[in-house]
Design a protein that fits this description.
2 domains; 417 residues; alpha/beta; 4-stranded mixed sheet; binds pyridoxal-5'-phosphate; Aspartate Aminotransferase, domain 2
C-alpha cells in the first residue's frame, strides 16, 4: 500500500505526517494523486466520491476547466508581483456585488488571517478590547480565538503556548442561547466584537435557531458591538451572498476564505466603508502580507465566483437537499437513533440521540460509531471528513448517480453499526 508507506515516511519529516491535524486519521490517510469533478483519486489506484472537497472550497468540484485554464494563463505571466493588479479590483467588485455587508474588501491569504485582522479592526473601531465567541466555533488557528470552556464563565487556552493573558479578552458562550449572550453583555462593558459562524461548520453542522441571527444583530447594534460573520465556510456556499443573504441578516464585517479562492489559498475581510477604511494604508489599523491579493489566487477566485449565479445555487442546493432527504428517509425507515443536521449543500450525521444545537450537544455524540461509519464509507470509496466534528459538502459536479450510490452505502453503513 503506497499510502501506508508514504504516511510512515511522512511521519519522519512532518509532525504527525501531515500539515494540518484533521488529515491524520487512523490507521493512515490516503495520499492524493489527483482530483476530477466529484472524485478524488489516491496513489493506490482508488477513486472516491468526495464530500470533503478540501474542507469546503471546491463548490465547482476538482479541477474546474475554466479555472484551470485561466490560472494556467496567469501562471505564464508570473505568480507574484508585489504591486497591484486589475483583477484584484474585479474580484473585490464581485464580492461587493454579491455579499450584502461588503462595501470594501481586504484580501489576505487564509481564513485565519481574515478573522485575526477583523478582530483587530473591530477593537480599533470601538476602542474596546474583549470579544465574544461561541463554544465549538472555529475561527482559525490564532491566539485570540483558541479558547475552550473551563469552569464557569472563564475560558482556558485551547492549546499550549496560548497565553492566559491573551484569552482573558475572549468570552466564550454557548450558541443558540439568548440568555447566555444577554448575560455576557450585561456583565461586561468592554466588548468590541461578537464573532460567529452563522452556521457552525467546525463542530459538525449546526444551523442557527429561527430568529437567532436577527437577535445577534439587534443586541450587538444596541451595545455598540461589531458583529462579525465568519463566513469562511458559508460564504458563496449557502447562496450567492452567503449566510447573510440566506438568513437576511447583515453583519458589520464578514470574513471569507475557502470558496473565495477557487481552490487556491486566500482569505478576505469585508464590510462597511467606514470601518474598512481604518485599515492601513488608508487608516492606521495594521494589516499587511507579501502574498495578499496574490494574482494566482485572485484569478482562481474571479473565475470561480463568476460561475456562481442564481441557477448554480438552485442546482447545488437541489443536490444538497436530495442527499439530506435520502438520509432522513433511511434514518426514519430503519428507526435509527441518529440526527441528521444540515441545510443547502452542507450536512452531517450525528451519532447522537438528541438534537444538536450547540457544542455540548454535539459532544454527546458517539465518536467511536462515527469512526466506524467513516471507515465503512471509505471502504466503499466514499470520502467524508474523518471526524464527527466536521461537515460534509457537495459540489455542482456531484451527479444523481453519485448521490444514489452514496445513499446505498450510507444505509448499509448506518444500519450495521
Ligand atoms: C476554515 C475556517 C477558518 C480558517 O481558515 P484557514 O484558511 O484554514 O485559515 C476560519 N473560520 C472558519 C469558519 C473556517 O471554517
Amino acid at each position: 500500500m503506497k499510502s501506508e508507506d508514504l504516511f510512515r515516511e511522512a511521519q519522519k519529516f512532518l509532525p504527525g505526517g501531515v500539515n494540518s491535524p484533521v488529515r491524520a486519521y487512523k490507521p493512515y490517510p490516503f495520499f492524493a494523486k489527483k482530483g476530477e469533478g466529484s472524485k478524488i483519486f489516491d496513489v493506490d489506484g482508488n477513486s472516491y466520491i468526495d464530500y470533503c472537497l478540501a474542507y469546503g472550497p471546491l463548490v465547482l468540484g476538482h479541477a474546474n476547466q475554466k479555472v484551470v485554464n485561466e490560472v494556467k494563463e496567469q501562471l505564464e505571466k508570473g505568480s507574484a508581483y508585489g504591486v497591484p493588479t486589475e483583477n484584484e479590483i474585479e474580484l473585490a467588485k464581485l464580492v461587493i456585488d454579491k455579499v450584502p455587508c461588503a462595501e470594501m474588501v481586504r484580501f489576505v491569504n487564509s481564513g485565519t488571517e481574515a478573522t485575526m485582522s477583523s478582530i483587530r479592526l473591530a477593537r480599533a473601531f470601538t476602542g474596546k478590547n474583549k470579544i465574544i465567541k461561541f463554544e465549538g466555533a472555529y475561527h482559525g488557528a490564532h491566539d485570540y480565538v483558541l479558547v475552550k470552556s473551563g469552569s464557569g464563565a472563564v475560558g482556558l487556552p485551547d492549546s499550549p503556548g496560548v497565553p492566559v493573558d491573551t484569552i482573558k479578552n475572549t468570552i466564550l458562550i454557548p450558541f443558540n442561547n439568548r440568555e447566555a449572550l444577554n448575560q455576557a453583555i450585561t456583565s461586561e462593558e468592554d466588548i468590541a466584537a461578537l464573532i460567529v459562524e452563522p452556521v457552525m461548520g467546525n463542530i459538525g453542522c449546526i444551523p442557527p435557531k429561527d430568529g437567532y441571527l436577527k437577535f445577534l444583530r439587534r443586541i450587538t447594534q444596541q451595545n455598540d458591538i461589531v458583529l462579525i460573520f465568519d463566513e469562511v465556510i458559508t460564504g458563496f456556499r449557502l447562496s450567492e451572498g452567503g449566510a447573510q443573504e440566506y438568513f437576511g441578516v447583515t453583519p458589520d464585517l464578514v470574513t471569507l476564505g475557502k470558496i473565495l479562492g477557487g481552490g487556491f489559498p486566500i482569505g478576505a475581510l469585508a464590510g462597511r466603508k467606514g470601518i474598512m477604511e481604518m485599515i492601513t494604508p488608508s487608516g492606521h489599523v495594521y494589516q499587511a502580507g507579501t502574498f495578499n491579493g496574490n494574482p494566482i489566487s485572485i484569478t482562481a477566485g474571479l473565475y470561480t465566483l463568476n460561475q456562481l449565479d442564481n441557477n448554480f445555487y438552485k442546482e447545488l442546493n437541489r443536490k444538497g437537499i436530495a442527499i439530506q432527504d435520502g438520509i432522513q428517509d433511511i434514518i426514519d425507515d430503519n428507526r435509527l437513533n441518529l440526527k441528521l443536521a444540515g441545510l443547502a449543500s452542507m450536512f452531517q450525521i450525528y451519532f447522537n440521540e438528541r438534537d444538536v444545537w450547540n457544542y455540548k450537544d454535539a459532544k454527546l455524540s458517539d465518536t467511536e460509531k462515527f469512526n466506524k461509519y467513516f471507515h465503512k464509507l471509505l471502504d466503499e470509496k466514499i470520502f467524508i471528513p474523518p471526524s464527527q466534528f466536521e461537515c460534509c459538502f457537495l459540489s455542482l459536479m456531484h451527479d444523481d448517480e453519485d448521490i444514489q450510490k452514496t445513499l446505498e452505502v450510507v444505509e448499509e453503513a448506518i444500519r450495521t453499526i
